[in-house]
Specification:
mainly alpha, rod-shaped
């Protein structure tokens, strides 16, 4: 029994197991590296927003409670709930939701193509062709697709993939995180008793009073100070 004839065009784009020809390993590695770095940048920026908002909320809550010499329990509970909702909202919008978005190699390739127009869609085409997304062999050329995949390794070699990312924003986000944490820990170390009271009153919602300073002034009557003998 004779084996069926194999179209040489399909051999050009398919491997021994019938899979599409693979993209050059260096390109795959670079695309994955950019995707990982992008996730890192998203994480830094999201944490900067979340921690920054939390820091502002903590100091605002502390100032309101301390300088009014003690807010009522209902007000403290409402402030705590508002802070939790605000922080959860900003964390969802700036941190959790962006990190849940799937970053595909084709998405990174598209960004690189925009940054380096001289690639002329070679990179994005090679990524899609390597997945077998070149359509039917009756209307498309697997041989041409294989040639594009091979050419992409040479053409994309001169493009700096990381240039599509804004490293400055990531650096500022990192500095903002460090500064926020430094301010918070410095405040705790500078006044641990006040920090403990704030936590008890505004997080645990306990009715612990703020310390009060009382100044006694002794007034003289006709130039004489009258007091009980042996009295303080």
């Amino acid at each position: 029994m004779e084996s069926p004839a194999i179209d040489p065009r399909e051999n050009a784009i398919q491997g021994s197991a019938g899979r599409p020809a693979t993209l050059d390993a260096s390109i795959t590695h670079r695309l994955k590296a950019v995707a990982s770095r992008l996730r890192g940048y998203i994480l830094l920026e999201g944490l900067a927003w979340t921690i920054g908002l939390l820091l502002v909320a903590i100091f605002t809550q502390f100032a309101l409670d301390y300088f009014t010499r003690g807010l009522r329990l209902s007000i403290r509970a409402a402030l705590l709930a508002a802070i939790l909702v605000a922080v959860a909202w900003i964390a969802w919008r700036r941190l959790i939701r962006p990190l849940c978005v799937r970053i595909d190699q084709a998405d990174i390739a598209n960004l690189v193509e925009r940054r380096f127009p001289h690639l002329s869609s070679t990179l994005i085409s090679a990524v899609r062709f390597a997945r077998g997304e070149y359509g039917s062999t009756d209307s498309n050329s697997p041989l041409l697709a294989a040639a594009v995949i091979r050419r992409a390794a040479t053409v994309a070699g001169t493009a700096k993939f990381r240039a599509v990312l804004d490293a400055r924003r990531a650096k500022w986000s990192g500095l903002a995180i460090i500064a926020s944490l430094a301010i918070l820990f410095s405040a705790v170390l500078a006044a641990p008793s006040l920090a403990s009271l704030w936590f008890s009153r505004n997080v645990l919602l306990r009715d612990v009073p703020w310390p009060k300073r009382t100044y006694l002034v002794v007034e003289a009557v006709n130039g004489e100070i009258v007091g009980a003998r042996a009295d303080d």
